[in-house]
């Protein structure tokens, strides 16, 4: 027993302070290596990373088994970044996607368990929070026949479908795997029977004559109202208002997504990387570096009259039509006066005024007169001045 | 020395109690028994999980009653919790509690480095830190795949002359091959020092 102490026992206190930064791995971590990594500086990590990148660049085209190099790289990333593949620094997503794309072109990996495992890890690591995106990737794999001869693929796919309560489709997938002779068949068969049992159980609990009720209650609600409520309400409205003769037809999407129909479509579908899938969800923001001065952030002051040139337009669907603009003339001691005229157009700047014709010329870009200041502008709000037409 | 014997009893009780809670914690954390079998209890100002499965409770109690007797007689210096794969029968993890007796009867030198009396509150804090470490160790320990496929064994290292009841059998040390070893914190009472290390396969 005592020789174990001599072998170099790791003191937990070295790890404990970082325990929240360590993502537990399914296969565990080497405590010794963990301690080493936690002591390591970023620059040292970068050196190793650079060496991997260099090897990828130079060796990749010459290797018999390029996946091996990628796997080595990713194993190192797992150890070097104990925060997990999702952490920003590790760049795991990029490396993984590069590997998946590179090996996809190579036929020898189509039924390689290591390659399939990598895909499964990829789904688990980056798409864990979305059933639908995970499903999309599985469908993509199915169409491209990646892992088509491996039971693991069908098992994982059906697991996902079971989680989504789609036992029927899960059975279909498993059966399909059996038909295609995926190995090991026995495991797949027992999984199929198991799922079939779950499917039967899930249908027993719903008697047939009540099925519709359950289906309805499962429908999505809009503003806490069921779809049928809204349908009824709009029907009622139409009946009340006699003027409408034609009932507006309301189209209902009866055709739910069915995996069994869509899965065989477009086999050459392109796979979108996570970054491009999420491109609409990201605002392009420059990275702020710590301790850098951004300068003054522009402030918008609300003072001064809002001029038409400065205001931002809000585009409505009714194109080109602005609502009428009123000028409200407030005189102290009297009731305020509402004038149906956009006086601000006439007095675009202080001490300047335009006539309606001038404005017309301005809007057509033919107004070329050097502006003369009018002395009586204060007295008369609308005053005719000379216009030059060209 | 009547005062000492009282202190020894108290110290042994503290240790046995610690064994009970740490064994329960490990069995829960490592998923050896399903989580439904455990319920929350407050101990050492921590919320810990303790089994309410009668069979398991009885099994642990039987072990600890015997260990308590050995400890009291200074006959036991190590208690090991082995997690064993049911299929292959090999040990996958080995949690080893080392017990040092400060007042060993046969070695008078040890009494020289005997520490000053330790406040029970200090002991409690140390135990708390150690149990926290057990929980935190899940960050590097591997997931034990196939839940329900593991069982545990308790080994007690005793003095060659210790009385061993019939339901205890001799055993090999059940080492983990190619193991990584991590040393945890330790705690001390007036009479004992208890350390813990885990060896696991990576």
Automatic annotation (TrEMBL), chain A:
<dbReference type="InterPro" id="IPR013212">
    <property type="entry name" value="Mad3/Bub1_I"/>
</dbReference>
<dbReference type="GO" id="GO:0033597">
    <property type="term" value="C:mitotic checkpoint complex"/>
</dbReference>
<dbReference type="GO" id="GO:0007094">
    <property type="term" value="P:mitotic spindle assembly checkpoint signaling"/>
</dbReference>
<dbReference type="InterPro" id="IPR015661">
    <property type="entry name" value="Bub1/Mad3"/>
</dbReference>
<dbReference type="GO" id="GO:0044774">
    <property type="term" value="P:mitotic DNA integrity checkpoint signaling"/>
</dbReference>
<dbReference type="InterPro" id="IPR012572">
    <property type="entry name" value="Mad3/Bub1_II"/>
</dbReference>
<dbReference type="GO" id="GO:0051754">
    <property type="term" value="P:meiotic sister chromatid cohesion, centromeric"/>
</dbReference>
<dbReference type="Pfam" id="PF08171">
    <property type="entry name" value="Mad3_BUB1_II"/>
</dbReference>
<dbReference type="GO" id="GO:0004672">
    <property type="term" value="F:protein kinase activity"/>
</dbReference>
<protein>
    <recommendedName>
        <fullName>BUB1 N-terminal domain-containing protein</fullName>
    </recommendedName>
</protein>
<dbReference type="Pfam" id="PF08311">
    <property type="entry name" value="Mad3_BUB1_I"/>
</dbReference>
<dbReference type="GO" id="GO:1902499">
    <property type="term" value="P:positive regulation of protein autoubiquitination"/>
</dbReference>
<dbReference type="GO" id="GO:0032837">
    <property type="term" value="P:distributive segregation"/>
</dbReference>
<feature type="domain" description="BUB1 N-terminal">
    <location>
        <begin position="56"/>
        <end position="223"/>
    </location>
</feature>
TrEMBL record, chain B:
<dbReference type="GO" id="GO:1990333">
    <property type="term" value="C:mitotic checkpoint complex, CDC20-MAD2 subcomplex"/>
</dbReference>
<feature type="domain" description="HORMA">
    <location>
        <begin position="9"/>
        <end position="198"/>
    </location>
</feature>
<dbReference type="GO" id="GO:0000776">
    <property type="term" value="C:kinetochore"/>
</dbReference>
<keyword id="KW-0131">Cell cycle</keyword>
<dbReference type="Pfam" id="PF02301">
    <property type="entry name" value="HORMA"/>
</dbReference>
<dbReference type="InterPro" id="IPR045091">
    <property type="entry name" value="Mad2-like"/>
</dbReference>
<keyword id="KW-0539">Nucleus</keyword>
<dbReference type="GO" id="GO:0005654">
    <property type="term" value="C:nucleoplasm"/>
</dbReference>
<dbReference type="InterPro" id="IPR036570">
    <property type="entry name" value="HORMA_dom_sf"/>
</dbReference>
<dbReference type="GO" id="GO:0007094">
    <property type="term" value="P:mitotic spindle assembly checkpoint signaling"/>
</dbReference>
<dbReference type="GO" id="GO:0051301">
    <property type="term" value="P:cell division"/>
</dbReference>
<keyword id="KW-0132">Cell division</keyword>
<dbReference type="GO" id="GO:1902499">
    <property type="term" value="P:positive regulation of protein autoubiquitination"/>
</dbReference>
<keyword id="KW-0498">Mitosis</keyword>
<comment type="similarity">
    <text>Belongs to the MAD2 family.</text>
</comment>
<dbReference type="GO" id="GO:0044774">
    <property type="term" value="P:mitotic DNA integrity checkpoint signaling"/>
</dbReference>
<dbReference type="GO" id="GO:0005737">
    <property type="term" value="C:cytoplasm"/>
</dbReference>
<dbReference type="InterPro" id="IPR003511">
    <property type="entry name" value="HORMA_dom"/>
</dbReference>
<protein>
    <recommendedName>
        <fullName>HORMA domain-containing protein</fullName>
    </recommendedName>
</protein>
């Amino acid at each position: 027993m005592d020789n174990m102490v001599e072998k170099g026992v790791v003191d937990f206190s070295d790890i404990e302070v970082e325990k929240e930064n360590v993502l537990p791995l399914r296969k565990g971590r080497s405590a010794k290596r963990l301690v080493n990594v936690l002591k390591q500086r970023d620059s040292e990590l970068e050196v190793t990373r650079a060496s991997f990148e260099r090897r990828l660049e130079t060796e990749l085209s010459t290797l018999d088994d390029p996946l091996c190099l990628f796997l080595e790289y990713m194993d190192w990333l797992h150890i070097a970044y104990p925060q997990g593949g999702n952490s920003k620094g590790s760049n795991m997503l990029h490396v993984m996607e590069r590997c998946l794309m590179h090996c996809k072109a190579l036929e020898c990996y189509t039924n390689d368990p290591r390659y399939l495992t990598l895909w499964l890890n990829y789904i688990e690591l980056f798409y864990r929070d979305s059933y639908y995106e995970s499903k999309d990737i599985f469908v993509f794999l199915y169409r491209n026949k990646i892992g088509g001869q491996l039971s693991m693929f069908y098992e994982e796919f059906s697991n996902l479908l079971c989680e989504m309560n789609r036992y029927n489709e899960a059975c279909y997938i498993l059966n399909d795997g059996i038909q295609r002779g995926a190995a090991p068949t026995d495991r797949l068969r027992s999984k199929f029977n198991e799922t079939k049992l779950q499917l039967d159980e899930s249908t027993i609990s719903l008697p047939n004559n009540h099925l519709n009720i359950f289906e309805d209650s499962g429908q999505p609600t809009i503003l806490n109202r069921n779809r049928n409520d809204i349908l009824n309400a709009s029907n009622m409205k139409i009946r009340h208002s006699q003027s409408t003769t034609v009932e507006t037809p309301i189209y209902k999407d009866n055709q739910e997504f069915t995996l069994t129909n869509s899965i065989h479509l477009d086999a050459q579908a392109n796979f979108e990387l996570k970054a491009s899938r999420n491109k609409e969800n990201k605002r392009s923001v420059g990275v702020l570096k710590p301790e850098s001065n951004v300068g003054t952030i522009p402030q918008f002051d609300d003072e001064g009259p809002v001029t038409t040139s400065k205001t931002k337009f809000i585009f409505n669907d009714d194109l080109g039509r602005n609502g009428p603009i009123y000028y409200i003339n407030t005189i102290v001691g009297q009731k305020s006066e509402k004038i149906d005229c956009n006086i601000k157009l006439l007095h675009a700047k202080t001490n300047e005024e335009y006539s309606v014709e001038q404005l017309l010329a301005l809007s057509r870009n033919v107004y070329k007169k050097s502006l003369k200041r009018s002395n009586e502008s204060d007295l008369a709000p609308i005053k005719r001045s000379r216009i030059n037409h060209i | 020395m009547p005062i000492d014997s009282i202190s020894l009893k108290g110290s042994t009780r503290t240790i046995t109690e610690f064994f009970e809670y740490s064994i329960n914690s490990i069995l829960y954390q490592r998923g050896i028994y399903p989580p439904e079998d455990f319920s929350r209890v407050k101990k050492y100002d921590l919320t810990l999980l303790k089994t309410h499965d009668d069979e398991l409770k009885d099994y642990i109690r039987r072990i600890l009653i015997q260990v308590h007797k050995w400890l009291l007689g200074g006959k036991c210096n190590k208690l090991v919790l082995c997690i064993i794969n049911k299929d292959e029968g090999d040990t996958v993890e080995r949690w080893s509690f080392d017990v040092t007796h400060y007042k060993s009867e046969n070695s008078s030198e040890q009494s020289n480095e005997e520490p000053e009396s330790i406040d029970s509150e200090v002991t409690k804090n140390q135990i708390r830190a150690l149990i926290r470490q057990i929980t935190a160790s899940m960050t590097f320990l591997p997931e034990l795949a196939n839940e329900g496929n593991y069982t545990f064994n308790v080994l007690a290292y005793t003095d060659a002359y210790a009385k061993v009841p019939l339901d205890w059998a001799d055993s090999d040390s059940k080492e983990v091959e190619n193991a990584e070893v991590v040393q945890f914190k330790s705690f001390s009472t007036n009479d004992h020092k208890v350390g813990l290390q885990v060896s696991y396969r990576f």
